[in-house]
Amino acid sequence: MGLDAAGSSLFVGRADEADRLVALTGVGGAGADHGSVVLSGDAGIGKTRLLAEVAGTARDHGWTVLVGHCLSEAGQSLPYLPFLEVLGRLEAEAPEAVERAVRAHPALARLLPGHRAGVPDAATADRADVESGDRGDLVAGVHAALEEVGATTPLLLVVEDVHWADQSSRDLLTLLFTRGFSSVVSVVASYRSDDLHRRHPLRATLAHWSRLAQVARLDLPPLPDAAVRELVHGLQAQSRNRPLADSDVRAVVERAEGNAFFAEELVAASTMGHTGLAEDLSRLLLVRFDQLGAPGQHVVRVASAAGRHVSHQLLATVAGLPEPELDAGLRDAVEHHVLVPLDSGGGYAFRHALLGETVYDDLLPGERVRAHERYAAALTADHALGSWAELARHASAAGQRDVAREASVRAGDSALRMAGPEEAWRHFSLALSLMPETADDDEVDGVTLRAAAAATAVGRLYKALDLLQDRLERRPSTAPPAGRAELLAALATAARVTESTLDTLAAAKEGLALLDPVAEAHPRVRAQLLAARVQALADRGRDEEALVGVEEAVAAARSAGMGELADEMRVVEARITERAGDPEKSRRALEALIESSRSPGDPAQARAFHHLGWLHHRAGRLDEAVDVYRRGVERARAVGRPWAPYAFDGRLLAGIAAYERGRWDESLAILAADGEAPPEPAGSSLRAARMYVAAGRGEVAALTELEATRPWWEREGLVALLAGTAAVDLHADAGDLDRATAVHDEVVDVLSRVWDPLFQGQLRLGTLLLGQLASHVQRVPTSARAAVLARGAALAETSQLVWDQALTRPGNDGPESTAWLARSRAEALRLRWLGGEDVDPAELVESWRSAVAAFEAYGHVFEAARSRARLGVALRSSGHADGSAELAAALDVAVRLGAQPLRAEIRATGAARPPGRPTSRHGEALTAREREILALVALGRSNKQIGTQLFISGKTASVHVSNILAKLGVAGRGEAVAVARERGLID
């Protein structure tokens, strides 16, 4: 429907908003900049009428105006629906510009009616290529086509009703908003704000758009009463009916509540002799419908089952009326302003979506089913009348399971061909749910594989795994073995990017054995199985065997025309090369693969970016790691695969690396999911990683995320490790050592089962708890101190065992692990020292020097500072003059990061006091033992109790207390505690 056909010809009460929208888009000339706008407002508030006014202004100033509409149910099933409409018109009006864009971006042909004949069918194309769908080239092609037109004549692109937009269209709009245009192109997207329930998918996208500085927001409020009154009088002037009485006008204004569409319908109902002012909204909207003759009502009822738009040919076929009667019915509906003719395409649309929805809701159940049956029959007889997605929708609503299933498969293939994995996943899922028990095995295998590929592409990894495993379990033993081999290849590939305990090597070997007699007939499946075997060998550290298999897998992939799979094998080869001790060769290989990628953002390139970032990460080049990870993430996001394997992993690791580098605000921005709707377990992974910064800053409220992530601990061990390590510090820094210990033990129990009893993450997890035991040991009762010391010794021993096991496999002795091992040894000595055991001061100092040096070599800013603070304490207790300097350096970092627990720890040493302020009247500092005793005095312990707890005599404790009072210059114990707290000597 053209914008100039929207609603009434009257335009009242929106002059300010029109001027604002004209200025934001630049369509009014006068040197204004072009820009992007998101327009919102309730249904019927006047969005389309406002857009029509602005479009008219644009045309008056020589702009080309292109409009795309999102449709309700159809909009959720056909990817890029509004852009299909826009590009269809663009192909007719600016064929040269479109042709240039297609030559530069061949995938754009998938969206162009005049080019689709040359696009390969998804059922016969390379499934790996279909999965990625050349989406990067496709969306770049749309951008290029708009850019081409804008370079010749200013262009206004309007996308209406994006609350109904498919995921692919939302992603494409995001790209257009983010990238912008060098030529004169303005983009406006409108949506119904009252349709956005709490879980509406557009909410996440809108949150992202709101953070884009180049995108303006304009929300239409209700019309003022004066404007509604002006509208009512204007409508009466256009009508030949008797004018409303003043009291009725006031009633219309009151009931319309600023909604222009409701005001129009109230006026129409009242002037037609109905008691519109007293009727409910649904009855009110049917008043115009009730004025139609029988043919008009029949046509409108049939049209309502199609949605807001329907082509003339399809409507004529389904309505089943003689041509004169059909024409009369359509004319009646148009004259009564129920339907409006479309500017192009020869079809019709409801004057307002609410009209169509109301008519459809008023149909009897039998009428609905019969209408959908007729649509399904028409679309089945002539596929040119509509899309497979439309046929699937109508057949499903009509209860025609077989037709709906076949159409859903075709619609899924079409969605993949158009680079719409989210829509494809929806279609394939429906097809599987409609599959009968007697279905052909090859058909079920094929749909399952398609559904798993689509699920993987949108980040639903466990759903893909469940689908494949379920099919393999249910598949009859008499089914063709080649089908089982292909399912095993997909299963092995999916399982390795999850926490599945599946033996991927066994799956790959079984598949190859099944395929062996008929391998030549299934070259693609053989290549996939060879690749899965290589990956399984590499995952087990059998690198020499994996390297031997790489060449065979690459050759098989290239022979089968699977270039991306061959590239993925080269990524695996580069990773093995790095583990073998040649990181520079690995780096060059990965960079070359990224540069030579034929389809930017494809799975192979995403994997190369991930591994290159990890190469930097492991080497302690954290800034480079963040940069590489983020580049890969942006490439994947641009092609609509932000949650796919390696793409999401890169984002998660980018946030962690930024945290380690001390770029905490950037880390939170990378890991923020407020503007997105991440699938699980990606959402829990992001929440768990954000807890790192919260722990560093002492934000105890973040512990609520612990429970939110817990359901995914068993299926995604990294979630447990991230959340657990943060929770250890959060609980203990809040004074709850028991809960910190309990979280540690729970995570170890889970990951010992999921991963390995000596999983490498214990180096960090156990060391953090060991450090907290040391920090709390002087606060625990004397009777419990021996248990704390024993627990600390066990943690230190486990760290050493983990390290010893890690060294048995290549690539596990990087700078991060080295740093945590050094820290574990230092914390073990610190615990013994603070716990009252004899510890060589020189050994204690040297252990902390090693920990500081190791974390600085790795680049972990916060842990280097925390280690430095503890080094400072060890130095001061040993009489070294440079202890204060180390504490001051650590404090600088703590202040910059906002690390409150570390600041409190340093303050407790006295290092946070103003420079030059004496700690006693004689300028003497309290010794470590005196600070320990002072802390017990603050707890109200008597000299005898202090002696018992510290294994010294009461007399010795009394001497220590006297020295403390003298050094602080106070007369009593209470005053000593007050002064100590004021000076930061105790909490």
Automatic annotation (TrEMBL):
SUPFAM superfamilies: C-terminal effector domain of the bipartite response regulators, P-loop containing nucleoside triphosphate hydrolases, TPR-like. PROSITE patterns: HTH_LUXR_2 (PS50043). GO terms for molecular function: adenylate cyclase activity; ATP binding; DNA binding. Residues 919-984 form the HTH luxR-type domain. One of its GO terms (cellular component) is cytoplasm. InterPro entries: AAA_16, P-loop_NTPase, Sig_transdc_resp-reg_C-effctor, TPR-like_helical_dom_sf, Tscrpt_reg_LuxR_C, WH-like_DNA-bd_sf. GO terms for biological process: regulation of DNA-templated transcription. Keywords: ATP-binding, Nucleotide-binding. This is AAA family ATPase. It comes from Pedococcus sp. KACC 23699. The lineage of its organism: Bacteria, Bacillati, Actinomycetota, Actinomycetes, Micrococcales.
